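Q: Structure tokens for this one, please.
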Amino acid sequence: MPGNNHVHSGNALLGILSPSVQRRFLADCTLVVLDSGKVLATSGKPLRHVYFPTRGYISLTAPVDGVAWLGIALIGDEGMLGSFTTLGIDVSPLNATVLGGGAALCMETTVFRRQLVANPGLRQVLNRYCYVLVSQLAQASFCNRFHQAEQRLARRLLMTQDRTHSDMFHVTQQALARVLGVRRPAVNAAASALQDRGLIRYRRGDLTILDRRGLKTIACSCYADDNAIYSGTMAGSW
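A: Here is the predicted structure, written as tokens:
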């Protein structure tokens, strides 16, 4: 896009849009604060708003036996919450909770549907993102079944770093155990192993990534695969 006409939405997904389409879209958005712990969507319930994070990140989780939940994906400023609305579905298939506080561009689903009709370019971009998300959800199911806790923890920490754009962030062992679908002692053992290798520093929920390259060697291949799916699809090469 020409530099003089660029619109700074703060969200990479919206940044793919042409300047004119992006301006029309942003005119109907409201910038909202995302407080950590805030529930934005509940599985099986109507989704009233869609969100395009500009800071912070959202965790998508699937309910397990009605009492537990398993981490499926993270959404930061590379994506959106509510992408399935582009398919005409207003019911959320997953739970969505803010893990890292920040901000997002928010739009009512009724207004969002009108934007999709008026802007074919918007629909094209978001259809691609739906493909990305479905592919990543499938990758997550494989990862949760076959990869070890230490590999999955390394992947999760890299994903979090990508979305916080910081080497330091706060995350508790309890939260990690929930999203990884393992018991807390397993998270403690995995985090201790990463810390003993000098890859991270972790104390009372405050985590610092010391060696990103080393962490990538520990993470399962799902991390690289997810990034390849996103970059290849959103660049239009697939």
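A few notes: The longest strand covers residues 49-64. Strands lie at 30-34, 39-41, 49-64, 68-75, 95-108, 168-170, 200-203, 206-209.
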